[in-house]
Amino acid sequence: MRPLHQPQVRLPPEAPLQRRPRKAFDWSSATVAVAVAVSAAWVYWRDGQARFFEILVSDLYLFVDILPKVLAACLIASFVAVLMPRAAVQRWVGGESGVLGVLIATLAGVICPGGPITIFPVAAAFVAIGADLGAAVAFITSWTLLGYSRILVWELPFFGGEFVIWRVIISIPLPIVAGLLTRSVVVRFVRGETGG
């Protein structure tokens, strides 16, 4: 007979995530800000004040529409980073996982639904908990080229089955090559320079 109250098994807590420090406004933010300012000035000069404000209001509505989705995706990515066991992520798609890790990341990209608002934060969360850059590149590349939702919703209705079959067959090796190439570049140039 089993006892009514079984003792709880407590697992040791994992070390906190080590995140690299990021600036709130870096070169990529500056580039986008300059492009926006130049484009806005050009539209104002070329099309006048009425068209400028029409575009500005439209873009503000788009921003308000997308913001909750971005926040939800970042929340999902945070939960992924906290709930996924880091040891398993490192074992299956970490730097020492070999070709199998790139294949697993490629398959994950194929089956993951959602748009870039969801996929990019999830990929960043996996990198934060131990996936290497090669696996992240394979994941994003396979989602872009082989993702089933894009094939079903966009490609089949517009191009038909024959086109989709050939495009998928030709695209299958690309995420794998991209992931392995990324690993090679990171090992040779990035880690070679830092000595890590």
- Mean pLDDT comes to 88
Largest sheet: none
- The gyration radius over C-alpha positions equals 22 Å
The geometry reads as globular
Quaternary structure classification:
single chain
Tally of strands: 0
Number of helices: 9
Strand content: under 5%
Number of domains: 2
Task: Give the SSE order as H and E letters.
Answer: HHHHHHHHH
- Contiguous runs where pLDDT drops below 50 for at least 5 residues: none
Structural class: mainly alpha
Query: Ends: how far apart?
Result: 55 Å
Helix fraction bin? over 70%
Write a structural description.
The chain is mostly helical. The chain folds into two domains: 28-70; 84-194, no CATH class. Helix content is 77%, strand content 0%. The chain has nine helices and no strands. The radius of gyration is 22 Å and the shape is globular. The mean pLDDT is 88.
Secondary structure blueprint with pairings:
Layout: H1 27-47, H2 49-83, H3 86-93, H4 98-111, H5 116-128, H6 133-146, H7 148-159, H8 161-171, H9 173-194
Short key terms for the protein model shown above:
196 residues; mainly alpha; 0% strand; globular
